[in-house]
Every structure is written in C-alpha cells, then in structure tokens.
Amino acid sequence: MSLEHFMNHAISEWMRVKGPLSDVVFSSRIRVARNLDGFPFPMLSTASQAEEVIRKVEQALKQDQSKYSFLAGAELIRMKDLSDLEKSVLVEKHLISPMLAEESRHGAVLLNKDESVSIMINEEDHIRIQVLFPGLQMKQAWELANEIDDWLESHLNFAFDEKCGYLTSCPTNVGTGIRASVMLHLPALAMTQQLNRLLPAITQVGLAVRGIYGEGSEALGQLYQVSNQVTLGLDENEILENLQGVVRQMIEHEHTARGRLQEVSLIQLEDRVHRSYGTLAHCRIIDSKEAMSLLSDVRLGIDLGFIRGVSASVMNELMVMIQPGFLQQYAGERLNAEQRDIRRARLIRERLAMEQKS
C-alpha cells in the first residue's frame, strides 16, 4: 500500500463505521507510551540511535505482518521522506501528532490499512501506540492496543521499573503509560452556555480537556478531547472506568441540553441549523474556524433529524477536508490564506451538492 492511500482519503476507513453513541462521541482513542531499554529518550538520541529504533520496529513488522490482522496492509513511513504538506495531512487525519510532524527529525510512523492503528516512532517516546475506534469503544480500543503492545514487547525490550512501571519521557505517563481519550461533539452544551461550568469540574477529577488536536489546540466545531491525566498508581481498568464514567455523564448532559433546546427554542434551533447549511451550500469564501462552527451546527441538525439527505459521515469527512494541509494536497499546490478560503468554500459546495444527488 502506498503513501497516496493515506493522502487521498479524507477520512479513515474506521471513521465510516457508526459506533455506539456516535451522535455525541466521534471517537475513542487509546495511546500507549513505551521506551526501549538501553536507548536514550528520543530528545537525547543521536541520529543513529533513532534510526536503530526504527529498524527494530521495521524488522518486527516484516517478520510478523502476515500473522496479525491489525498489521494488514501496514506501512512504515519515515518523516524525512515526507514534505511539510504531507505531514500536515497526517496530523489533520489524527494519524500522527503535531510534535512528530514538527519536531522529530528522525521519526517514523507505522500505519495499518484502515488507519485505526498508528504506531509513532521517536516522538516524545520511542514508541507511541495509538488505536482509534468510532463512537464510545474504549474497552475495545484498549484490547487492541494491548495486543499490539504484546506483539512489540515480544521483539523489543521495554524500559520498565518494578516500582514505577513503564518509564517514559514525561513523568505524567510513567506507570501504565496509557492515555485514554474520547472526542466529544458538544454543541448543545455550548449553545446553552453550560460548558464553562462543566469543563472546569472535569479537570478537578483528574481528567484533561483539550481541543481537536490535543494539548494546546483549539476546540473547533465544538469538538473536545477528554482524557486521563494520571497513569501512575492506577491500573488500566481503573483508568478506563474513571474516564468512561465521566464521559457517560457528559453524554447525558449533552442529550439533556439537546432535548431542552427542542422544547424551548425549536424554531430558533431549526433556523440556526438550516441557515448554517445554507451558508455552507452557497458560500464563496470561508475560513476554517467559521466552517467548523457551521459544520457543527449541521451535524447537530442531522443527528436531530432536521436535515435529511446528508449523512453524518459527510460532516466528518468535511471537517478533515477543509483543513489547510488537506486543502492544499487536494489542490495540488501551496495556497495562501485567501486562496484556501476560496478553495474551502468551493470544496464544501461541491461535496454537499454531490451528497444531495446520491
């Protein structure tokens, strides 16, 4: 499978499947951090040491690719072989982190065919296993991540301390090395101004709330990533149960807010949704922030049955396709901000028109 596969598909194959509670939960992610014993952490590694880590993973892949379904069609891609634009596309598809794209001169990523598995190499840690599932499926994502972890550990000697657990570059990951996160769409809570009260309360119970691309990113389109902050002193099941309990409460609050909006402000809500759809269907120039906000409204309208003939997966697709890197990849050339805004509007119009005809 070639790199073009990852560049030319706006949404990963796993995103086309409707998961549990997908009207609120976009995705569940498990990330596992591991380091190799006897090697300096990536920030201190030499080029030859970093390349050796990549070679070890590459050898494991070649030896076992036919044995494991999660390695079907997998390919190892070195960051040095990618342009800045290609790396941006992979970030926008959540297949690599901004850190790997921007800071890792000697990094790589192993991606499987449906892009549900991404193994980042020489990011903050030597190995970052990432598994993505649609909807609320943290347990299933963890089971797959654990299987991948076992596979790698059969080939690699991980840095482990009997007292502290798995050793990582960042102290907050020491222990299990697991970060579980859920991407939530919370438009009704935002409209009813309940998020300002809810989000600080979440951080007080040991969870982190971040934007669409993780730490330091903005919550575009009312998408919020909620994850555990503590990995030391808790086992994997405790981490997942704590996060899932809070996430289910957030889903309940969002459903309640949606119901309340329909009871109190139905016409206003329908008007907002259809105005947003009309703007997207006819705009000639639009920036990414406005487009994400309008797509959020339309996605809510689809979930509530206000808009028919457009699938929720198209909204997911557009939320990726309108990002700067993917737009330029689609155009086949670098674009300035105004050119991107014009191209974004045209792409949205064409995609919505195509959906209505199908």
TrEMBL record:
GO terms for cellular component: extracellular space. A motif (RDXXRA motif of the pArg binding pocket involved in allosteric regulation) lies at residues 340-345. Keywords: Allosteric enzyme, ATP-binding, Kinase, Nucleotide-binding, Transferase. Signal peptide: none annotated. Residues 24-257 form the Phosphagen kinase C-terminal domain. ATP binds at residues 27-31, 94, 128, 179-183, 210-215. Coiled coil: none annotated. GO terms for molecular function: ATP binding; creatine kinase activity; protein arginine kinase activity. It is an enzyme of class 2 (transferase). Its EC number is 2.7.14.1. The keyword Coiled coil does not apply. Belongs to the ATP:guanido phosphotransferase family. Catalyzes the specific phosphorylation of arginine residues in proteins. HAMAP family: Prot_Arg_kinase. This is Protein-arginine kinase. The lineage of its organism: Bacteria, Bacillati, Bacillota, Bacilli, Bacillales. The gene is mcsB.
